[in-house]
Design goal:
The complex is a heterodimer of chains A (about 110) and B (about 500). Chain A has about 110 residues and is mostly helical. Chain A has a domain of about 35 residues. Helices cover about 65% and strands about 0% of the residues of chain A. Chain A has three helices and no strands. In chain A, helix 2 packs antiparallel against helix 3. Chain B is an all-alpha fold and about 500 residues long. Chain B has a domain of about 210 residues. Chain B contains 19 helices and four strands. Chain B is globular and about 75 Å long. The chains are: A mainly alpha (about 110), B mainly alpha (about 500). At the A-B interface, helix 2 and helix 3 of A face helix 5 and helix 6 of B.
Chain lengths: ~110, ~500
């Protein structure tokens, strides 16, 4: 039986590895994809920083012994929204650069 | 403690530009004069609030404002001490000058200049005021997202190239920031900077490495924003290609990174913090000297005026961090004095470079023989004065700032190295400035010149130079204030007491 912690950490590791690889391709479309993958990994990582608890309430009350930390979840929500805006902008920028510069290299010209 | 007239005054420098920005957005693409008026009103009101805050923080009181009145350390808190008040005031003074320059024509190139500019001010003011790690991230994102859009404002191949580099690198930086915040939260269980400082001191040996890893990730991110070696390669192209008022406001952006470095390494990773005591004590100063060297080489090698000024920004960040890296109140005081000077003069030089560029027609700001500028005498005199201030010739403010930093370094083990690097750097900057000046103003050909600069454009540059002359004229009281500011920054227990005890 694979533990929950191992599964989450391996997922994060694989996402980051793929993201870094794609970013290093230095073409705008793979870079945008890679950045999205990295931001997914970061969101998962942030989420797991509240410790991984299954089936416990996200709030501290009388009578509740085990609870999960709700704060990282709020942080992740914020990070998702910001990441969404950033991705949208970088896509527009990439398209504009491709149309105006005639190259999809991140330097704006073929190396 | 004097009771403030209005309870919510602490958020004014964030809320005022934010509301003005939204109103500009409502005005849409029409109503240029309305948008200009809104923008000018917003920035002036925000400047007034900043001056008020500066006066309030003058006597050394640390004010806190808990947003939503959540009890500390759970809620987000704004903290005003002398350091943040000084930075907010600097931001708004600079914003006013840059905006005035933008009103003379650059704001007509695209529809959302006023909105973006005001949002930029919102983000920078917020980043200086917040006392919460995640809130700092949010304000960083606000100022970055607007900076991304402003980087390509006006269009053109150069701006797109520089802008793409800037955007992609900073997106990776944001991811690292989040990981760093996540680790710090996971270990200390708090996001409040003051609380984090208390908790960081109590971390046991088991979590020490994780805490250090998170802390160093944050340092990497702040170093990237501040453009410290080896993380400055995104800066020159981006800064050299953007529209003049944007370049002027960018001059404060690297200082946001410097401020975050100062704040976190003194407050959270400073003295008596267990395993993260003096996190950057051994690293920051060598890196600062390297940054200074690389920046100066760039200044000497630059082939256009704006690129040269962009490298001067890097060199000035190096100079500032030499003082910060000493981690003594004297060093920090000198750095703060120099930081205000270097921010204003780089902004002024970017504006001046734009005027020269427009008057030189096809030669632009390239350092090559070009046409005789229509306004050559006035521009030449302004250029000479600005460069004397920037290169740090006595008795100007750049010289004084460097003297403060050098004298703070005098009794330390970095004595010789800091003196040699900083003085050699100043010398080469001066040589490069003289070469650029003689190339731009003396080596002329008969190519057609550009348009005569409108008088309106001299106003912001003259304003900046005037502030810098006052900066050296009142150097005595100002440096005393900076001494008190630095001393307060190192009195971390007062900061923690103010945040954790009050603001409820």
């Amino acid at each position: 039986m694979i533990s929950f912690e191992l599964l989450v950490s391996v997922t994060i590791a694989v996402l980051v590895a793929m993201g870094v690889y794609l970013v290093l391709r230095a073409r705008t479309f793979p870079v945008v994809l890679g950045l999205s993958l990295i931001s997914y990994a970061v969101n998962l990582f942030l989420f797991s920083m509240g410790r991984l608890e299954v089936g416990s309430p996200p709030i501290l009350q009388d009578g509740v012994e085990v609870y999960t930390d709700p704060l990282p979840q709020a942080l992740v929500l914020t990070a998702i929204v910001i990441g969404f805006g950033m991705t949208a902008f970088s896509i527009i920028l990439a398209v504009k650069a491709y149309v105006e510069l005639g190259s999809d290299h991140v330097d704006g010209e073929e190396p | 403690m004097t009771e403030p007239v209005f309870y919510h005054w602490m958020v004014a420098p964030v809320v005022i530009p934010l509301v003005a920005a939204m109103c500009c957005l409502l005005a849409g693409k029409s109503l240029l004069s309305v948008r200009r008026l809104l923008g000018l009103g917003g920035i002036t009101a925000s400047l007034a609030a900043a001056i008020y805050m500066f006066v309030m923080a003058w006597d050394g009181t640390i004010f806190t404002y808990g947003l939503g009145e959540w009890p500390m350390p759970y809620g987000i808190v704004f903290v005003l001490d002398r350091l943040s008040a000084t930075m907010v005031l600097l931001t708004n003074v600079l914003a006013l000058f840059a905006y005035l320059y933008g009103l003379s024509g650059d704001d007509e190139e695209g529809a959302f200049f006023h909105f973006l500019f005001l949002m930029q001010i919102t983000g920078i003011n917020g980043a200086f005021l917040t006392g919460d790690m995640f809130n700092l991230f949010v304000f960083f994102e606000i100022l970055l997202l607007t900076a991304y859009v402003l980087a390509v404002y006006g269009g053109g191949a150069d701006r797109l190239k520089g802008g793409m580099r800037y955007v992609f690198l900073n997106l990776i930086g944001s991811a690292l920031f989040l990981i760093g915040v996540g680790v710090l939260y996971g270990i200390t269980g708090t996001l409040n900077m003051a609380d984090m400082a208390v908790k960081a001191a109590q971390v046991g040996p088991g979590d020490a490495m994780m805490l250090k890893a998170g802390a160093f990730l944050m340092m990497v991110v702040f170093s990237m924003k501040a453009a410290i070696f080896p993380l400055y390669f995104w800066l020159p192209k981006a800064y050299a290609s953007v529209t003049a008022p944007v370049a002027a406001i960018y001059a404060i952006m690297t200082k946001v990174g410097v401020y975050a470095l100062i704040r976190t390494t003194i407050l959270i990773f400073g003295d008596d913090r267990g395993f993260v005591t003096g996190l950057l004590d051994d690293y920051l100063l060598p890196l600062a000297l390297l940054t200074l060297v690389m920046g100066t080489i760039g200044v000497a090698a630059a082939r256009s005026l704006r690129l040269m000024v962009a490298y001067m920004v890097i060199a000035s960040v190096g100079t500032i961090l030499v003082g910060v890296g000493l981690y003594t109140p004297d060093g920090l005081s000198g750095s703060l004095y120099y930081m205000v000077h270097s921010t204003l003069i780089s902004a002024g030089l970017f504006l001046l470079a734009d005027m020269i560029l427009n008057e030189r027609g096809g030669s632009k700001d390239r350092l090559e023989p070009g046409p005789v500028m229509p306004n050559i005498v006035l521009l030449g005199m302004t250029f000479m004065i600005a460069m004397i201030i920037a290169a740090g010739l006595p008795p100007m403010s750049g010289f004084l700032g460097k003297v403060f930093i050098l004298s703070a370094a005098a009794d330390t083990r970095w004595h010789e190295l800091a003196w040699i690097v900083m003085l050699t750097g100043s010398f080469f900057t001066l040589v490069a400035a003289a070469r650029a000046g003689s190339m731009l103003f003396w080596k002329t050909n008969t190519a057609p010149a550009g348009e005569r600069t409108r008088a309106q454009r001299y106003l912001p540059v003259a304003g900046i130079l005037l502030v810098l002359l006052l900066w050296v004229g009142f150097a005595g009281p100002i440096s005393e204030h900076m001494d008190r500011t630095a001393a307060q920054a190192f009195e971390t227990s007062n900061y923690i007491q103010a945040v954790m005890g009050g603001g409820q």
